[in-house]
């Protein structure tokens, strides 16, 4: 029996929410993500499997995206000739051969990444079966997908005819990514190879239906199939396994050979053996991931849900991919990687699974060449990371939006001007280093990232009127584009340059060779370093002395004031209500911006009074049109002792996907909201921080009804467990 604090259940069947459930119940293992579409299909479904790093630029598309790989999930069957389906309408029922689903329940076991669906199905003949589908993406061998189908005769002794296959007739919402598709099938196995039609990645799949009854094999241009006939006796149960191995040329030179060898190795094992190995890996992952909350079961489930989705997207097998804004759970944002990874998803991984965090940082290191090209193309020095990133390291932000309701397209400026991404990456590198003490990583890789992005800022700043400015920027608040002097951007760039100088000092002492080679390679001359120092001293930080607040950017308070809090209750931001142009001309803020700065730099932003003034100014102007916003507000509000707002924002963040309060879960999980939720609890409510003496401490500010929170983090290679109680603290 699956524990209700570890699982999510759909009961009864909710046909209108299929796309929601496809995302929410997504499976994965850090190698791929698999939407929870039905094995037999459903009208209007969006079955998809996305493999990390497998990008392709389809003909006619603006940008590259993760290619939906051939469908391996398919299992269809008939009962006495009646196809098993969940999507017959009442009208269809009058037309034979149609059956009826009499009962249904689907559960995602988040503890062990298992999706289980049970249905009671009556065929036109009256023959009735109970069918159970189980499916998991093995955490033990990430190339292995396991499905078990159990069919029991409940009424009568029906004949079951079952087909399972591989099918390359797939697309991303119509965009086709595959060529040279070659299916093949023998009774022993089905295979399929294909190549992405622009990037040239090769895919190999090997699959088999494992059953005691004889299997017939078929294949055509796009599909490979195994079929079998089963005559069920009264009350008899039959169990079938379908195993599928998936590899690509990103893993090996011969993907098909590897897929076939994996299939033949694992087909000897029973389902229980396969599941036990998979579950053991999950248990290991949860050991440090799980945050336990006593006194709030809903919050508990929401936190586990978020952690589950981070874990199934987190690559353990390679350091050459990163996590997209929608994980691997949907087509939203085309699988592109944003700052969401470094500032939202990475911190929980840095603290709980540093080896995975390192992989994600190395993804950026491997793409420094692309960042350098971008800087050069824009007339700057150093490394300027793309706002949206894929496998190539090139800027992949589309220039134009999809058509709006009135048919027009909006110019997207983020790829040009949302430049803070370079500092966000540097921040993540340094955060990783501080928490892990992984000097080798810093010396070999991290320092180069931090320093070459600092070189970029040194060349990017504009000297004007005796100070340094940054115009034509986009801060976190994307409603305000191409603005002058975003306080977030200016202050973070200043912070970044200071960190770069500190880092150089550290390198000189601890790794003089690296200090010398990087100084040479990145041309860190004494003039350049003197300029950095000058920028640090004379960077313009917009601040209203009279009101004692930071000004989000020059001219912000001249814009139309719109009381955002009046537009409640709503789903999503108020941008669609105002329209693009009016939103741009108003003080409505899309997401934590000055508040984000306060989350990242804490007290370094200013005294408590200023932090409170900032929060009280910007919170009522923020519409949380981005899912990145509420958790950051919860975190900062908790630190400021604004308990009610903190919990309100925590709940908002917790329900983004589970209650679909942005209205777009069908496009994929909001990865940043998931990572943000963890931070709101650990950094916000529990107040975990590094002390100046170099140790860990908590400073709890728990919501009133939370009795206790327990969590583990790694600090400098050592696992530390905390139990934070209300109101007093029990030391670790
Ligand atoms: C947010 C960005 C975010 C992107 C991807 C946008 O709506 O404003 O901050 O990086 O979504 O999640």
Architecture overview:
The strands form 7 sheets. Strands 1-8-9-10-11-18-15-14-13 form a 9-stranded antiparallel sheet. The model has no long low-confidence stretch (mean pLDDT 96). Among the domains are: 4-285, Distorted Sandwich (Beta-galactosidase, Chain A, domain 5), CATH 2.70.98.40; 303-337 and 624-732, no CATH class. The protein is built from 21 helices and 28 strands. The chain has 732 residues and is α+β, with helices and mostly antiparallel strands. Helix content is 35%, strand content 22%. The two termini are 33 Å apart. The protein binds beta-D-glucopyranose. Beta-D-glucopyranose binds next to helix 6.
Annotate the secondary structure layout:
Layout: E1 7-10, H1 18-24, E2 27-28, E3 32-34, E4 49-56, E5 65-68, E6 75-79, E7 82-83, H2 90-93, E8 100-109, E9 114-122, E10 128-137, E11 144-155, E12 159-167, E13 178-185, E14 190-196, E15 202-210, E16 216-219, E17 223-231, E18 237-248, H3 255-266, H4 271-289, E19 292-294, H5 297-313, H6 339-352, H7 354-365, H8 368-377, H9 414-417, H10 421-436, H11 439-460, E20 462-464, E21 467-469, H12 487-510, H13 512-521, H14 526-538, E22 543-544, E23 549-550, H15 575-578, H16 580-584, H17 594-601, H18 608-618, H19 629-639, H20 643-658, H21 671-685, E24 689-690, E25 696-697, E26 708-715, E27 718-725, E28 729-730
Antiparallel strand pairs: 1-8, 2-3, 3-4, 4-5, 6-7, 6-12, 8-9, 9-10, 10-11, 11-18, 12-17, 13-14, 14-15, 15-18, 16-17, 19-26, 20-21, 22-23, 24-25, 26-27, 27-28
Helix pairs in contact: 5-20, 5-21, 6-7, 6-10, 6-21, 7-10, 7-11, 10-11, 11-12, 12-13, 12-14, 17-19, 19-20, 19-21, 20-21
Beta-D-glucopyranose is lined by residues 325, 333, 338-340, 476, 478, 590-591, 626, 628, 672.
